[in-house]
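EI: anyone free to look at a 59-residue chain?
SC: sure, send it
EI:
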Amino acid sequence: MTRASFRQADIERILRAAKAVGSTVEIDLRRLIVTVYHPEADGKEPPSGLAPDGLESWD
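SC: here you go
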């Protein structure tokens, strides 16, 4: 198994495990660091650099 496919297999395993428990995962591929954000009771979203999904207003 090549090094790249080993990493891909690890990432797929991490994503499946996180999905099973309802967590959000942030993966840094450059440093191979995985951060798992567990859902909280108060409904707070994990930190994200992405814009929220929703309707776009281009006007």
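EI: The two ends are 51 Å apart (CA to CA).
SC: 👍
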